[in-house]
Write the structure tokens for this entry.
Amino acid sequence: MREKVRTVSKQFLTQCVLPAAVMNLFIETLSRCSLWKAVGYLLTSPLIFLYNTLIIAVTLSVTLLVRRRVFAGFLICILWAVIGITDFVLLQFRTTPFTAVDLLMVKSAFSIMGHYLSIFEILLIFAGIALAAAGCVILWRKAPKYGQTIHYTVAVPFCAAAVAAALLFTNVGTHLNLLAVNFGNLADAFHSYGLPYCFMNSLLNTGIDRPDSYSSDLVESIVESLDNSVAYAAPHTEQTEEESGKDESDKASPSDALPSSEESSSLTEDTSAKLPDDSVNIIFLQLESFFDPKLIENIEYSEDPVPFYQYLKEHYTTGYLNVPSIGAGTANTEFEAITGMNLDFFGPGEYPYKTILKQTTAESICYVLKSLGYSTHAIHNNDATFYDRHIVFSQLGFDTFTPIEYMEHIEMTPLGWAKDSVLTEEIEKVLDSTEEADFIYTISVQGHGAYPETAVLEDPEIEIEITQQDSKETYSEEEYYGILYYVNQLHEMDDFLKQLTDMLAEREEPVVLVLYGDHLPGFSFTEEDLKNRSLFQTQYVMWSNFDMEQEYKDLEAYQLYSYVLDRLGMGDGLLMKLHQKFLKAEISEEDYLEKLKVLEYDMLYGDLDCYGGENPHEPTNLVLGVSPIEIDSVTTHTDAEGNVTLLVNGQNFTSFSRIFVNDEELETVSIDSAFLTAEYSELQEGDVITVRQVGKDGSVVGTTEEYVYQE
């Protein structure tokens, strides 16, 4: 037996531990983009390095139980190498590392791969995959098998002991604060605790852990305390005749000349609002990677890139908005803003759009406003299927969703993203489509990366100059061109904001527009590079076309809609009431976060005690587009050479519309919103014709009713 133990111990060291150490150093080198930084990590955090080596060794320990040890070890090492390489590639385009939830984003990743990688780089990736697959096949056939008897009586307990040691270290490490379970900053966590641990944590730690104090009695007591609280900070007051007759020339208008900061009015702490008698249209505008570029240290601009945004901040309610991500993760800021739920309680790097919201609805601003008679809409100038919004928005209570496949008059950036100017027309369409008040959640895309590393703008309107930097080395030439491109996109987005508010200001119905950035852009900024010293802050503005008192208030993204509805004196909902109590300083932060986690767990994973045991929020019958695509007639035309052209006449066609005959897609030419053509020589009486909206990823996201052809 001693000889068996000695043999297995030697095998574990040579076949598991040593390869694991090499692999750990390899993936940490990729993660830190430097061999010397990886060695520095090994020397400064030896226990963490050994622990991560143990994690990899545990996965390799399976080789002790099989005869094809070389093949099994190679396959496992390939998997770890793929994790390391994927993390390295992702870090070149965003600041958040690779987590397990990214595996659920593979389909979406393929749809935008062309924005980040060149054709050569894409071919290189597929060539690498092909080589790895070929290597596995060759090793399966050629690699030697372990010919001696496998000592299962020792190997199995040995593997179990390795797993137990890893679990024990994890438990001790978390209790001694050597390791963290939940990560406030993913990038920092991966560097502090190692890629293997953080990736495995993201794989196993999903959803919201059941709070230790969770019980039906506790949930009921929380609900009772909220039901007895004051619902609103600002009542929906009627205007007096004198107030309503105020001279319009006294009211700040987005069409006015932009004042200097010295001329702007000071902020007030009065939270009261003078609201119109009618229901207020509420528009949330989430701007891709948008923030004030003047917050970046050591960069000067030929002129202010976002002058209208500065004007809005000077004249309307504003403040910093703490968001859950940086450089990527639009859907997570979106999730917090729509649901009022704190993402910190979920697993590291988790996207609820890809996990729990596939299974259940969630309390949201949509359901709160629908109870008041609102129609609810979403607009996004990108693919309907990205982040599975075409599915998830039903679970969040939206009635309609207008993705890029349903939009006309689209202009593209040099990187192939839709410009935001198209959103003004789409928002106006939604406002005109209903009689009742509307809630519109609009998601922008123009500021999206990856940003270019060469000059792509022939004549940029905004020039930048890098000044002396004390906090870091000067920006590289590649970073300079990326920032130059980004700032000029911000400038165009700023023009869009003025265009949008001009349109809304002319409408007779009252409108509140809440605009904010979803996260910072994916540059290599540190906190010292930003004047506000935070990588997780953007800013918001609450604009209206009627008089409201100005206020400065810093918020979390999950508090935003509760604050807005509170200012308007409307709405209800458990999470909203809890946020309002905290914002009014009626409860401590510790008590607030504890109750928030309990409610979130109960709503999504628990017994629904907060709702009396039954979820009151039913999924909506989500309709794509506010104007349905329709076929009015189908005709054919034969030219002198005998070529037959199919002409489809209808309504609301776009460049994404495709003609299908008997489920066969034809090569379609879009003439305008009323006409599509395609060559087709075999059209016969009784053929079924449809027009379908087909996304860039090939997904069909909408279709007309069937049209039966009659000669």
Q: What stands out?
A: The first strand starts at residue 281 and ends at 287. The longest helix spans residues 2-32.
